[in-house]
C-alpha cells in the first residue's frame, strides 16, 4: 500500500475541536493535492484515492474516498475551520 504514496508535512496546528474534524481532513487533502500538483505527481482532472477515518485517533480509518483532482486552483485553497 505504500507504493505511490508521498508524504507531505502539514504545517497547521493540531488539536482541533470535534466539529472541525471533516473540514480539517478536507484541508489536509487540499494541501496534499496542491503539493502533488506542484511536483507534477498528479494532473488536474486525475482520479485519486484518499483514505481517512471517521474520527481522530488510532483505529478509526474506515473511509476510502475516490476524488478528482480539481482543475481550478481556487478549489485547493485551505478553508477556515470556523468557530461555534
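Sequence proposed for the structure above (84 residues):
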Amino acid at each position: 500500500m505504500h507504493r505511490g504514496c508521498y508524504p507531505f508535512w502539514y504545517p497547521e496546528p493540531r488539536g482541533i475541536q470535534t466539529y472541525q474534524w471533516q473540514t480539517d481532513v478536507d484541508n489536509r487533502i487540499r494541501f496534499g493535492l496542491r503539493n502533488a500538483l506542484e511536483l507534477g505527481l498528479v494532473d488536474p482532472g486525475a482520479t485519486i484515492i484518499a483514505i481517512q477515518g471517521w474520527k481522530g485517533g488510532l483505529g478509526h480509518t474506515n473511509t476510502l474516498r475516490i476524488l478528482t483532482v480539481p482543475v481550478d486552483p481556487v478549489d485547493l485553497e485551505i478553508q477556515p475551520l470556523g468557530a461555534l
